[in-house]
Description:
This protein is an alpha/beta fold. Helices cover 49% and strands 12% of the residues. It has one domain: TIM Barrel, CATH 3.20.20.70.
Amino acid sequence: MEYSNTLNTYAPAITEEQVAQLVASAKAAAVANENVDVYKFCLSAIDLTTLTCNDSVESVTAFAKRAVTFPDNYPDIPNVASICVYPSFVETVGLAVDGTPMRITSVGGGFPASQTFLEVKMLEVAMAVENGADEVDIVLNVGKMLTGAYDEAAAEVEMIRSEMDEDVVLKVIIESGALKSPELIRKASLLSMEAGADFIKTSTGKIDVAATPEAAVVMCQAIKDYYEKSGRRVGFKAAGGVKTPQDAALYYTIVEQILGKEWLTTELFRIGASSAANNLLSGILGHEAKHF
């Protein structure tokens, strides 16, 4: 497929000034969403994440079990959406969550840099799915995006998607902090969706600039335009730097304002986070709590 030609069927990105106006509007509206109900939903939308060089079978098992035991301690608060780990720990999480509805998310495809052979990316994703991953987060090739090799970047996503069953959720990380401009962020978003992404995600959390409201606005606009063209709903995931309940409420508000309430489900909205889970729980309870 010639993805570059597909881009020409969409309008250009909105300007930085228009982005700033939309962000200002969302920040003003977000104050009303800084409440327990929104915090509960945002907690239920979290992909609870551990992606460090210190991860081990023991630490990941303990991490997963904290999520599994959450309903026992807080039966009136919805649990997180999934547990997100490196591919080699998918089976570890599977053993820890066996018999529960907890979903397993694996990063893959040469995360976080996406700088390896396509065959390796495809095999890594296939192995993660074989080991039990329900969802896979890959990184769009940023180097190809920055040099204008759009067809190659999108073709990689398409090939990786082919390694997954239809019921496995594919989230494509566009690394918006590296792309920087609204135009490139929009192109990366549209290309990812055209190539089969079920979600587009802001960031890996592994570079200096992670999720920003500005990138979220551009990405959500792209999701809206893609939906109007294709009729297929694609989800939005904010990840990297989302720490406070107020941060979560702001991304909730951006989705609400641009995409509408129908996108405010865990099938279409996620937050990639670790510390945010305890902070949202604290905001719900009205006092400091550390469960996760």
